[in-house]
Amino acid sequence: MYPTPTVVTWQTVSEPPALAADGLHLWYLATDRGDAAPRRGLDWLSPEQRQRADAMRNPEVRNRYLHTQIGLRRILSGYLGHHPRDLVIARANNGKPFVADQPGGLEFNLSTTEGLTLIGVGRHEPLGVDCERLRTRTTLDAIARRLFEPSIAAAIEAAGPDERIQLFHLAWTALEADVKADGRGLFRSRPATAPAPTIRHLIPAAGYVAAVARIGLPPRRAWLTLMLRDDAEGTEG
User: Fold this and answer.
1) How far is CA 161 from the centre of its chain?
2) Which of 71, 88, 104, 140 is the most buried (most CB within 10 A)?
């Protein structure tokens, strides 16, 4: 039903490399750091982001959010040549985030789950990214019947326990990445004239599965899979 996902090897870098017009960069942020707050970058965030973080009573949840948003700004600013605090990250009417006032056609999407955040970056074509930790769900079959194609739901229901969990998360991440690429949401159909994106799966870390969706998605061998170096956590100033 789905090809076997590729196990990803992450290249550690201090700043983004050059991004080709048809390229794809996928970034891994380790966010499960307990009570370890970011050392720098809080002043890069917008007032709304700081207010949102301040409202989070669970310190682990708050710090995961801060590591994600600071890391995202550091990554995007590296492509655009701006200071991270100067980026304006806005939301379209459908809720999809984008970088405002930038002429380079930079597109990004992110997915956060327990312990990690994945960020996909490309140019010109919108993309969607989703990552999930593999886990059992008591309502797995009901969700599959409601949201997936009947053949996929039937295959999940017929599978053994371990395969069922794997198949479900492959289907779920594919669906999420697809709808995040165009921002239409889970319960809206794709317009009849709109082309479907290419979707590919990967394993970002043991116990997780992820999917990337984009029209014109390059083959996996052409992707760069990157991780920010911890010893360069933030830009000075």
Assistant:
1) 27
2) 71
Give the Å distances, CA to CA, from 48 to 44, 58, 134.
12, 18, 32
Q: DSSP class of residue 198?
A: E
* Per-residue model confidence as pLDDT tens for the chain (237 residues): 788 999 999 999 999 999 999 999 999 999 987 667 888 899 999 999 999 999 999 989 999 999 999 999 999 999 999 999 999 999 888 888 999 988 889 999 999 998 899 999 999 999 999 999 999 888 899 999 999 999 999 999 999 999 999 999 999 999 999 999 999 888 888 888 999 999 999 999 999 999 999 999 999 989 999 999 875 454 444
Q: Which CATH class is domain 6-232?
A: alpha beta
Q: How far apart are CA 120 and CA 225, in angstroms?
A: 9
Ramachandran angles phi, psi of 192, nearest 5°: -60, -30
Q: Show me where the domains of the chain are located.
A: 6-232
pTM over 0.70: yes
